[in-house]
Design goal:
alpha/beta, UDP-n-acetylglucosamine1-carboxyvinyl-transferase, Chain, 4-stranded mixed β-sheet, binds uridine-diphosphate-N-acetylglucosamine, binds phosphoenolpyruvate, UDP-N-acetylglucosamine 1-carboxyvinyltransferase activity, cell shape
Length: about 425
């Protein structure tokens, strides 16, 4: 199994390209199920999860074709075509590896009149229920059956009706699923307290390009007028705000100066505000964001929240950065009950962190020490990379497949800005 070795202490400096967003790609790809015409996605990141999603689509009868990808390029162009949906079942073997598989439920039931998806269950960061996906789909006319680890959704008469639904809590995944289902419904759908993450805006814009009718994009009220059919389109995946934020933390912890090329500041308000409060200089440019830091970082009080709040997907990376800040920080995780799997590993590197329920107190230490570590989820793994970049000595991050799910060619990007980092294969 591969691991990543980092010899810490190098100050990061230079330009670092930001890839297409994983969390956008994984909700844009299932849109291919909504039309028999080709959907082409540009700037699709080269990630294990994108490959996995392509594989799932293939099983459902969608052809996937990658165009002109040169090994040296970041991202690629993929054309997907669901001329005919040949299966309406997303099996356990695929779903268990990739929770985003649940996002085929809405588009499949909308297009094929039925969908059967294995229940994704919990994962390392918590329970991750899907009850709101199902309630929202019911509200727009789907009949839901749960049996033997599967959920089956059926559209009576072959087409969903549309309807109204108010989310009791903001859910990114449930909003995505029901929006993709509602675009082909007979009537109008009104969603209240919908998620307004930039990835949801990206999804809605792609659906508009395919001929959907959606109002209120970027607000908590989405009104979707169903159309008879959608057509093909070409759409550019948005830049990854979490990847950009992660590399900003990496630059800051090393006292570096890095230009995040392609990063979009308007998607990153809470992250950039937090960096500035910590004493990082952030310059928003036309097509990039420049971050630089010198001297001690200041401690922060942060609480995760749906967009435009501070993203749960940035919590672990900030925790690593704040491990060497000048004082005590307080982080509160409100989205997932168990997203502190990185804490014991950071502690092995010398961090002083105390978890009390959903809160974590991070008392800044003078320095971190390299150590062999491993994490059980994607952002936790990234927090260990960030800590390793600043640590004294060598850090070995194991279970790198988590990183391969969400960071395109991580070592290469970090090497290019001066990190001493390499991937080693344990054979
Ligand atoms: C609001 C939020 O920050 N969502 C994050 C969540 O999206 P993801 O789509 O995975 O999760 P949701 O947004 O649906 O979850 C938000 C909250 O709603 C609860 N819930 C969700 C669905 C459901 O059917 N029932 C239910 O109770 C969850 O337990 C959670 O507390 O994880 C992704 C991966 O880390 C992040 O990119 C998203 O930013
Ligand atoms: C947890 C994440 O993603 P996933 O839900 O795909 O595991 C993430 O992007 O931080």
């Amino acid at each position: 199994m591969d691991s990543i070795i980092i010899r810490g202490g190098n100050r990061l400096s230079g330009k670092l390209p930001i890839s297409g967003a994983k969390n956008s790609a994984l909700t844009l790809m299932p849109c291919a199920l909504l039309t028999d015409e080709p959907l082409t996605l540009r700037n699709l990141p080269r990630l294990a999860d994108v490959d996995g999603f392509g594989h799932l689509l293939n099983q459902l009868g969608v052809s996937t074709m990658i165009e002109g990808a040169r090994p040296e390029d970041f991202g690629r162009v993929m054309t997907m075509r669901a001329g005919r949906v040949t299966s309406t079942v997303a099996p356990y073997d695929i779903v268990r590896k990739m929770r985003a598989s649940i996002l085929v439920l809405g588009p499949l039931v909308a297009r094929a009149g039925e969908a059967t998806v294995s229940l994704p269950g919990g994962c390392a960061i918590g329970n991750r229920p899907i009850d709101l996906h199902l309630k929202a789909l019911e509200a727009i006319g789907a009949e839901i059956e749960l049996a033997a680890g599967y959920v089956k959704a059926t559209a009576p008469g072959g087409r969903l009706s549309g309807g109204n639904y108010t989310f009791p809590v903001v859910s990114v995944g449930a909003t995505e699923n029901v929006v993709m289902a509602a675009v082909l419904a007979k009537g109008t759908t009104r969603l209240e307290n919908a998620a307004r993450e930039p990835e949801i805006v990206d999804l809605c814009n792609c659906l508009l390009a395919m001929g959907a009718r959606i109002d209120g994009i970027g607000t908590e009220t989405l009104i979707i007028e169903g159309v008879e059919r959608l057509h093909g389109a070409t759409y550019q995946v948005m830049p990854d705000r979490i990847e950009a934020g992660s590399y900003a933390c990496a630059a800051a912890i090393t006292g570096g100066s890095v230009e995040l090329v392609g990063a979009r500041a308007e998607d990153m308000g809470a992250t950039l505000a937090a960096l500035r409060h910590a004493g990082v200089t952030v310059e928003e440019k036309r097509d990039s964001i420049h971050v630089s830091a010198d001297g001690k970082l200041r401690p922060l009080t942060l609480s995760t929240a749906p967009f435009p709040g501070f993203a749960t997907d940035m919590q672990a990376q900030f925790m690593a950065m704040l491990a060497i800040a000048d004082g005590a920080s307080l982080l509160t995780e409100t989205i997932f009950e168990n997203r502190y799997m990185h804490v014991p590993e950071l502690a092995r590197m010398g961090a002083d962190i105390e978890v009390r329920g959903r809160a974590a107190v991070v008392r800044g230490v003078d320095k971190l020490n390299g150590a062999p570590v491993m994490a059980t989820d994607l952002r936790a793994s990234m927090s260990l990379i960030i800590a390793g970049l600043a640590a004294e000595g060598e850090t070995q991050v194991n279970r790198v497949y988590h990183l391969d799910r969400g960071y395109e060619r991580l070592e290469e990007k970090l090497q290019a800005v001066g990190a001493d980092i390499e991937r080693v294969s344990a054979g």
